[in-house]
Amino acid sequence: MDTAYSWTCTDAHGEPMTDPALGGRGFPDQAEAEAWLTEEWQTLADAGVAEVTLRYGDEVVYGPMSLAPPP
Q1: 6 SS3 class
Q2: Widest pairwise Cα distance in the chain
Q3: Beta-bridge mates of residue 17
Q4: Distance from the Cα of residue 47 to its chain's centroid
Q5: Mean pLDDT along residues 45-67
Q6: Gap between the Cα atoms of 9 and 22, Å rounded
Q7: How would you list the strands of the sheet with 5-10, edge to edge?
Q8: What pTM did the predictor assign?
């Protein structure tokens, strides 16, 4: 299997959210993963996602990053 970029999502209690619709699918590159998040962050937040982390395979690229709007 090829290594791909993916988002992991956690709820407000820090618990993982494992629904594949929440970004668990693979993206071929970081730019596509970030473009997807740019389009979908509000949907994720509405589904209860509090933070996201970008991964490349098992490695953390960056995160966790809050989806809360700025104050």
Answers
A1: strand
A2: 42
A3: 9
A4: 12
A5: 95
A6: 7
A7: 16-17, 5-10, 51-56, 59-66
A8: 0.88
Q: How far is CA 52 from CA 1, 7, 25, in A?
A: 23, 6, 13
CB atoms inside a 10 Å sphere around CB 49: 23
Of the listed ranges 18-22, 42-46, 60-64, the least confidently predicted one is: 18-22
Quickly list H helices, the chain: 30-46
- Contact at 8 Å (CB) between 54 and 63? yes
N residues, the chain: 71
Structure token pair of residue 20? 């594949």
CA dist 34 and 1 (Å) reads 22
Tokens of 50: 């509090």
C-alpha triplet 17, 18, 23: angle, nearest 5°: 90
